[in-house]
Request: fold
Amino acid sequence: MAAASDRRMRGFTRWMKYQGIECSNALLLSAENGGADDSSRSLSISVKALCDLKEGDVVATIPKQSCLTVRTSAASSLVEEAQLGGNLGLVVALMYEKSLGPQSKWFQYLQILPPFEPIPLLWSLSEIDSLLAGTELHKLRKTRLWSIFTADEYIAAKSLVASRSFQVDEYHGSGMVPLADLC
Reply:
């Protein structure tokens, strides 16, 4: 099991280098497999400062093109066509990239993320229809994208976006920022 987590972490480290992401030697990234009741895919990533950090210290440099955003995703035209903006667009972009598997530009990054974050979004479809009319989830159910992705995929991606996304800039909007979202 440790070999699998080490392999994914090495893959992520190589991917960061290829993407031009620089991580300071002041940080230690480590990975462990999830607990006994977790899936074998679940990793626990930790980022530890190896020394005292001062305000202004640069611990990472992350090019905007390495961030998973609506604009950088292979799903950008689908998201724009469906007029899904903000976090909803990012959720769809994340689901799309995950569905591409090894063909995704972010495959090695996506491999180290947990399958989902445990946020209170895990409702049944009937509860969504009756209690969430007019919300992002209800809006997504009315688009053709709903037939591509399952509710579980949406909920998993939404939990990651809700807990880990950053505002990249005005052009890119919100995005998944590799390395920074692990802190």
